[in-house]
Design brief:
By secondary structure, the protein is of the alpha/beta class. Helices cover about 35% and strands about 20% of the residues. InterPro entries: LpxI (IPR053174), LpxI_C (IPR010415), LpxI_C_sf (IPR043167), LpxI_N (IPR041255).
Length: about 290
């Protein structure tokens, strides 16, 4: 069991979530020692940390050296990473891997670049160096989506039908490690997320369904490993859905982070976009077609 006086490491990508994570860690009385991934982290993040250093996305050796120097034995890894950078023409010059990352790439990842494989290999390598990657949600439990309708505004009967239709399809996409979101309308799939991310999928759904009224489903399997890549819904997501014509959102209860929850709920109510947390019983019923 970790010593409560030991600091917690934070490996931070983009978005608001790393800031919420840092706040939660400090509220629990622990120090925050942060590795901010270059060109990814929020500019304000360093002010929420007790120690901060920037490191390249594929400079795994530097992550480990920094965390060990700070005395970190447990760490969380949160925030989005723009995976499309992996396929830029000049990627080898802009993202030169260190020897540790290169070795892992050659031995394992060159044959399988799916998110869960990459993140699992990173977690294993951190563990071999004395740094345990822990549950992302441990210090931000108050921001997790609950079950049922989370907003004051309620879904219509048509939206209920669409979200129940969408759910088993989304779970199958998760099983295949394709994406964590899709858009549906009138029991028809409008758009599916791949590595472009939820925001770009939302924009595409708006272009494909100009009449609007579609439902966004975002979530993860009940067996989701909460150490990394936990689906996140923020205020910007609500604004993007509204702009693209979406009118309802369904998420996995206990498996999706609302960053930050009060602001997300308020934004959804202001936009008249109901948010529904799909619980385990509801998910089973949807999968059975009821």
């Amino acid at each position: 069991m970790a010593n409560e006086a030991e600091p917690i490491g934070l490996i931070a990508g983009g978005g608001r979530l790393p800031v919420l994570e840092a706040e939660g860690i400090r509220a629990a009385g622990r120090r925050v020692m942060c590795v901010g991934l270059a060109d990814q982290f929020d500019d304000d993040l360093p002010t929420y940390c007790d120690a901060f250093s920037e490191a390249g996305l594929v400079r795994l050796g530097k992550w480990i050296r920094l965390l060990r120097r700070w005395g970190v034995k447990q760490a969380v890894m949160v925030g989005y990473v723009r995976k499309a950078h992996m396929y830029e023409p000049m990627r080898l010059w802009r993202q030169v891997p260190d020897w540790r990352a290169a070795w892992l790439w050659y031995r394992v990842l060159r044959h399988d670049k799916r998110d869960q494989k990459i993140l699992g290999v990173l977690a294993d390598e951190l563990g071999r160096n004395g740094i345990e990657l822990i549950d992302t949600t441990r210090y931000i439990a108050e921001h997790m989506a609950g079950e049922g309708v989370l907003t004051r505004c309620q879904p219509t009967s048509g939206q209920w039908a669409d979200l129940r239709f969408a759910w088993p399809i989304l779970m199958r996409l998760n099983e295949l490690d394709i994406g964590q979101s899709l858009a549906v309308k009138e029991r028809d799939v409008i758009a599916v997320e791949a590595f472009e991310g939820t925001d770009e999928m939302i924009e595409r759904a708006g272009k494909l369904c100009r009449s609007g009224g579609w439902v966004l489903a975002k979530g993860a399997l009940p067996t989701k490993d909460l150490r990394f890549d936990v689906p996140t819904l923020g205020v910007q997501t609500i604004e993007n859905v509204k702009r693209a014509g979406g009118r309802c959102i369904v998420v996995s209860a206990g498996k999706v982070i609302l960053a930050d929850k009060p602001a997300v709920i308020a934004a959804a109510d202001a936009a008249k976009i109901p948010i529904v947390g799909m619980g385990a019983d509801d998910a089973e019923a949807a999968a059975a077609g009821s």
